[in-house]
Amino acid sequence: MTPAQCRMARSGLSMGVRELAEAAGVSTNTITRLEKGEALKPRTLEAIQSALESAGVEFIPENGGGPGVRLKK
């Protein structure tokens, strides 16, 4: 998950930093650091991505058009 994917996912879900932090079990500062492009531990990234996926986001890998996100049906 890239910083831009995290921002796009939150926006698509109308989810604030605090809501995502709570859902992922991390601090709001951790979400802010991720979205600024700072490196996080793999397990922290997994927790954040899992929280977003549970909320209804699907991550799209790099496939020539750039990585992205979409909302699940």
TrEMBL record:
This protein's superkingdom?
Answer: Bacteria
**One Pfam family named in its UniProt record:** HTH_3
- Report domain HTH cro/C1-type positions: 18-59
Its protein name is Helix-turn-helix domain-containing protein
Q: Name the species this protein comes from.
A: Rhodovulum sulfidophilum (Rhodobacter sulfidophilus)
